[in-house]
Amino acid sequence: MTRVRIRAFLLQSLAQRRRTSLALAAVIIQSFAALPTASVAGPAVLYSFSAPTFPNASPVTNSDGIAPASRLVLGSDGYLYGTTRSGGANGAGSVFRMSATGTLSNLYSFQAATNSSGEVVYGLGPNDLAQGSNGNFYGTTRNGGSNFSGTIFMISPSGSFSELHTFAAKTANSSGQVTSADGATPTGALAQGNDGNFYGTTQYGGANGTGTIFQITPAGAFVSLYSFSRTVAGSASTNGAVPNGLVLGTNSDFYGTTQQGGLDNAGTFFKFTTAGRFTQIESFNGAAPGDNPVTPNGALVQGANGNFYGTSAFGGAQGGGAIFEITGAGTATVLHSFPQLDAGAGAALTVGVDGNFYGTTGANGLNGDGTLIRMTPAGDFSTYAFSALGTNADNAGGADPSAGLAADGAGNLYGACAAGGTNGSGVVFQIFGPNFVPPFFLSISNPPPASTNVLVGASVTLSNNPQGIAPLTCQWQRDGTNITDGGDIVGSLTNTLIINPVFPRDVGSYSLVISNTWGALTSSVTVLTVTPPAISISSPAPNASITAPVFSGTATDAPLFTNTSPTAIRLINVVYSITNIFNSSKITGLAAVTGGGGGASNWTFTVTPYPGTNILSVQSVDASGNISPAATRTFFYEAAAPLTVRMVGSGTGAFTITNGAMLNLGKGYSITAKPNSSVFVSWLNDGFISYTPTLSFVMQSNLVLTAKLMARQPPAVSISFPTDHERSGSSDFLGTAQSSPVLFGADPNNATLAHVMYWVTNTASQSVIGGVAALSSGAGAVSNWSITVTPLPGTNILAVQSEDVSAGLSAIVARTFFYKVPARFDLFKAGSGTGTFTGAASVAGDPPPDQRRDAQHWRNLQDHR
């Protein structure tokens, strides 16, 4: 149980590494002469990491680290240096040094101290190391630090540790991107420029949340130099996103790739100078993955020819990723394609002293626990599989070699496995380069073409040339499943597969799996297809409405391959079917076929479909049994019939479609009942009841639609203010409105008040002010209405009327009132005399008082009026 728990812990910590697939590592051409060369075929284990001290504790600790998952570095002092992702004294990973004889020293254990938020302060998850010109080693951690965004550190060969930089805190911007001032989640090894400073990348953070390029001096002076652009949903960034790391070119400039962004969001290839100048050289073509790498997933390495080499998670001829070469000008060439049927893309290639590329896969292979791979510059590919883990998650040789390899000048290669070993915590291993050629490694050459197209009845031969230590086992697969001899299949357990004759069931992707004691290798895929005849529809046109049911088109023979008889591809039948969308009925038959010349024939048939929307489907069949893909066409067959519309109940009304209207059968319509001094109750149709005035239906023969309308009392309205003949200076008018009584069986919503209309008429000028009053709910079916309007001064008549949603109108209610507005009356004196005036106040709209009547008598008359 204990080692199973360790295994689960290790796999979880390595999940991200496995997803990143193959990455290219820097070339290490140094001497490590004190180390012996391996004399065995497989890797020699130099060191097995110790078991956890307390396996069930959290974090899991031990004396020397768990899961070495970064590339080893061969130091100038002849020692190997590396890091572990977990374990050590604090469970947060370690930095170790190993001697030529396999003696390992733990130089530093990352501290698992946490802040108030529970985040690791001193770094977590160290990446690859890089040795500086001063002899010290520099590295990064993906997480941890005071802001939990990662750190940059320095450690001396004797273990003196200094944290140089903590990346800034992460925040989310308005677009949901996680940004930071100087980047977050550094990745890969730092690269020292010719100016003595170190350069690196972060995969996230920065101004746009998609990574940065930074510089740090050996003393720790940090500056963020460049932020990659943001990737917006539905589009790609212009200069890439999520960088993979940098490599120093021979021209003193840095080169790298991004996993995302570019024109097709398939990644980019870029150059960056120590002066801070960024140049995007190429966007990987995600629109043509068969010809290009897609989504580069590791740092580049520069070859002796000056070109760069990298890996991708997708693309290539087989679609499962690729190893590619790219020139400084951006011309990419796929050297090896991984098939989708064999998850072959792994991590970290290294160029050996022999000029070949070496690397690892963190999983997969014959036993599912990782492989070593070799590829020549010409693209010849070989592999070795690590042995399977035991029930206690341990084995002798290690597993999950997700780190890249280090090479010395004597042909030795050194790597680390994140799992396996005698304690299940991982190992450091060594292998001698010359042992990487067949028969130690399996290899396959002279593969068949990537695709082959034949006719039913033809013969197909697929052959590969496998190499490796005997005995070799061969197994052909179709679509990833083993096939056996029988029927038309011969040679399923040999390197040559014969299919004779070919049947439609033989279509698929074929590959050869070869294996021996040390591993297994899957060949490139050959896709076998059967070329069928073709067919097209001329009439009816797409989505056409037709009344004459005549259908026609053309059929084309399959291609005539070499040694194929013309009679084998002769068209013999055109099969048709017409399916009605409304009732799912289907009409089938054979069309009449006439020769058209040049391998083309004409077909036609006449049949009466069901009215409405139909789908026509046709396929052609030749003498060899080849069947064309179906051609389909949607059309509408018109046939009209009268619609019967009936009205029941005591009400009256009209309909938007009149009784007896001729409608197309099978077509969708809608009809609305419009009551007249009535209320709509329901539509009644063959047991189906709808309580909304508008009914949607599909026209059928003898269709009868019945609407129930009920007579009803109209709504009512009253005026509360002003009272009749009231003199008022107020502009607010109030009242109530009452909906019609709800009839039994009717929808009460159909009697809901819609609004109250008003008109204010000035009797003197006959001007009218009209509008809609504001409604507010009252008790039960009663609502309150209010108006705010300024009438003309004088006598006015207010009239109101309520209306409900079914167009029911109340009687008009009117009220006479006098609207008074105080007005100013000015008297002017003329002439040389003096005197006083008598009078009384009046309001606008009052007639001038008669000189023979006093003011009070005039007002009494007005009130009497």
Plain-language structure description:
With 865 residues, the chain is mainly beta. Helices cover 3% and strands 45% of the residues. The chain contains 2 helices and 72 strands. The strands form 18 sheets. Strands 26-27-28-29-33-36 form a 6-stranded antiparallel beta sheet, with no helix packed on it. It starts with a helix and ends with a helix. Residues 1-40 and 849-865 have low confidence and may be disordered.
Helix % is under 10%
Unreliable segments of 5+ consecutive residues:
1-40, 849-865
* Total of DSSP H or I helical runs spanning 4+ residues: 2
The span between the termini is 108 Å
Reported for the largest beta sheet, the result is: 6 strands, antiparallel
Structural class estimated from helices and strands: mainly beta
**Mean pLDDT over all positions:** 81
Strand-residue fraction?
35-45%
General shape: flat
Q: What is the β-strand count?
A: 72
- CA gyration radius, whole angstroms: 44 Å
Could you give the order of strands across the largest sheet? 26-27-28-29-33-36
